[in-house]
Specification:
Blueprint lengths: L13 H12 L7 H18 L1 H4 L4 H21 L5 H32 L2 H11 L4 H19 L1 H16 L3 H19 L7 H9 L11 H15 L22 H20 L5 H22 L18 H5 L8 H6 L3 H20 L1 H12 L2 H14 L2 H11 L5 H13 L9 H9 L6 H5 L2 H19 L7
Helix pairs in contact: 1-5, 2-4, 2-16, 4-5, 4-16, 5-8, 5-12, 5-13, 5-16, 6-8, 7-8, 7-9, 8-9, 8-21, 9-11, 10-19, 10-20, 11-23, 12-13, 17-18, 17-19, 18-19, 18-20, 19-20, 20-23
Amino acid sequence: MKTILLVLFTLLFPSMVFATELAHQAIDLTENWVGYTALIIFVVAYSLVILEEQLHLRKSKPVLLAAGVIWICIAIYYNAHGMPHAAGVAIKHNFLEYAELFFFLLVAMTYINAMLERNVFEALRDWLVAKGFSYKSLFWLTGILAFFISPVADNLTTALIMCAVVLAVGKNQPKFVALSCINIVVGANAGGAFSPFGDITTLMVWQKGIVQFNEFFHLFIPSVVNFVVPALIMQFAIPSGQPDTNTGEKTPIKKGGLIIVLLFILTIVTAVSFHNFLHLAPVFGMMFGLAYLKFFGYYLRQSGKGEIDESDSPSTNLIGHDEELADPTNHSFDIFDKVAKAEWDTLFFFYGVIMAVGGLGFIGYLGITSEYIYGQLGATTANTLVGVLSAIVDNIPVMFAVLTMNPEMPHYQWLLVTLTAGVGGSLLSIGSAAGVALMGQARGYYTFFSHLKWTPVIALGYAASIWVHLLLNSHMITAP
């Protein structure tokens, strides 16, 4: 919430200097029992994630365990070799990265849950139904909206919003929901690839100064191709007809619903402004934006008529208020209730992934992988494989490894790796923050295997976008 996204790891670049210095003290454990053990544990954990639906085991559990065991092995080895603090410093560095992601996602999820409670998406569903859109039209509409909103709002939050609309509109059509979620993931990731704020990998490249702000728009047409090609094929599997209106009644938006939407947009603008103008991590802007929602909840409490934010009233913990809180007819607006309803399994999954992959990087595997593919395979092949690898592991550590190695290659190749790292995650549901989050949000509809079924079609769009980029932008031969 590998996103929510968008400007999530702004501190990653100041920490790159730190990470480089730490790397000089690190011991290569890739051919040691620590490295082999870590690889086996990681593979087993990810296999359990893939089999989540069959085992009925939440995806956060295996990766949380794997992350802990990997770092225990690292710490034992370093302690035994007279470097007791090295592992501790490294794990704190990775935890700081996760903390930024956690709070960014938590704010985004809180806003989305608040909009859900205010019936914003229910009203949008009824509006779409009233317009007479068919399932196929809704498939395209949500995908296109995901593509064009993600460059501003980031691919994770965009995907969450569009998925909420799909669930509200087509919950009685599982196949429609599954295909639309795939389309949303592909559209959100593709849209985020041509904007510095659309994905963390694009932000990393922009922050590094390798690609200038306006140069990202050279990736617009390749991104369109990446989205449109699989969508054109998947649309033939969309059920015919249109959503059932049931009674035909329109769901009213509860008091303050549209204001919360505006506050969420303002929060995104604040996060971007914190980064762009104040040079502060966007997560601080998101937390600042949470205050907007808190104060608006206070306003709802003061305005009365059942729109009470019990969490902001200290007296709710006093004797005499228990009956009011227990009253099921009390439609209170409790912000902490929205926080509690965040997708915690997803948040803990990200913790496990980031810490586990960080451990593999500290052991030395990511550096070896980057050095091999660029030194032996060539830039185009290597950058194409970066996208494939990001679908299996995660695009953030993969891009981090590429930037740390800083291979010499033409400018259009840096644009290519920016594109592939951004859209490559669409190949698998676990390959991007958007996909992972939607597996949690659309549980039972959108799964790893429902996405895997369409991976060949998505791969066709992936290959086509690379070909279009090389055709249009290979004239940018000047090295950055």
